[in-house]
Amino acid sequence: MKITIKEYKARRIVNKHKYLDSWFWTRYSAHPYIGCVHGCEYCYTREEKYAPYDDPADFVRTIKVKTNAPTLLQKELPRFPRDLISIGDWQPIEKRYRLSRRMLQVCHDLKFPVFILEKSDLVVQDLNLLRQMASKDITVLTGFSIITTKDDKTRRLFEPGAPSVKNRFNAMRKFARAGLYTGTALIPVLPYIYDDDENLEEVIERTKRSGGQYVLVGSLTLGRRQREWFYDALRRYDPSLLQHYEQLYDHNTAYAPHPNYVADLGRRVEKLCAKYGLRDRIPRPIPSNHLLAFNMRVAEILYDRAYRLTLKGVTGFREFALRKAGRIVDSQSQDLSDVLEKEGRAGLRAIHGIGPKLSAEIESAILEAKAEVHDRSDRAKVFSYSALLSF
Ligand code: SF4
After folding, report:
1. Which of 83, 176, 179, 250 could crosslink 27 through cysteines, CB 3.0-4.6 Å?
2. Strands of 33-34's sheet, edge to edge?
3. If you average pLDDT over residues 69-74, what whole number do you get?
4. What domains sit in the chain, N to C, each tagged with a CATH number?
5. Whose alpha carbon is nearest atom 5 of ligand 1?
């Protein structure tokens, strides 16, 4: 396929998320290319808001290159409080432009913590720089997106231009041996194709063998344009599945599958991760010297509780309230354990947005986090290198 490259100068590069991403713990993102030759048929970035192409097929054929990405990053990043940034893109064009490498160098120089999620093993070419960052106590959190270990010919129907799964696990192994915290994003699980126990277990088992420390599962979400595109691929694979998808996505009106499906998938991965001694959530990197480290951990507990509720099929008010509590705790500039100690629950209730129910949830999370502080070694066990130490 002929690839067209369009170079241009972007106006800005850092995207600040409205809310903290409670899956990957990122607060920012910055990527140097638009469009992707890996061409995954399920890719959510095919939606117009991420990839503004008139013809959706151009997402794979026309790669837009933000040639000034590192310069912009250098200018913009110092303005933001330090927190994880999802960065780079190691699709083949990176060999020519090296923009992701130069962006990493900026993060290195500014001591800015990074998160990298890749399908491409090309990222290994920058392992030395990542290792250097970790050795200087700059947080480096990594992961590889892997949805199946089954027959590669079928997988290529859904990820036609992406590197092989074998190469991704090899890259993971190299990262793990270099001491980087890494694992698998089993996202998105394609219903009725890759959601069987055998596939889930094999991905988890190979993650373990490759030195990964977590497997995060997520179901397929379907936006408008993405749904049309993915359904074409589904027709080529097995048209009889279309009616099942239609039902699972509430007659094609829902963005996500039915909550019971999501809960069941999450529970199975939770169980399998426990079997292999892996985590099914990424532990939040919390710098030990951060003034609000305690609040960060309390927010993490609240987000984790919300996630565990979804595994029980609870997606209503309580789950929403826990996430809201996480967001509020994370936005505070005072240590909430001090507030609780000096003013009791009334002090928590005085914070904007916290009512009696949320204050009880937050108090209980504070007590859980406090209990951990007495056992710092337990927290240290979570992370294999000092850049991710907490408390
Ligand atoms: S690797 Fe696949 S899922 Fe990721 S951006 Fe590229 S096309 Fe989308």
Report:
1. 83
2. 4-8, 62-66, 33-34
3. 98
4. 4-276 (3.20.20.70), 293-388 (1.10.150)
5. 36
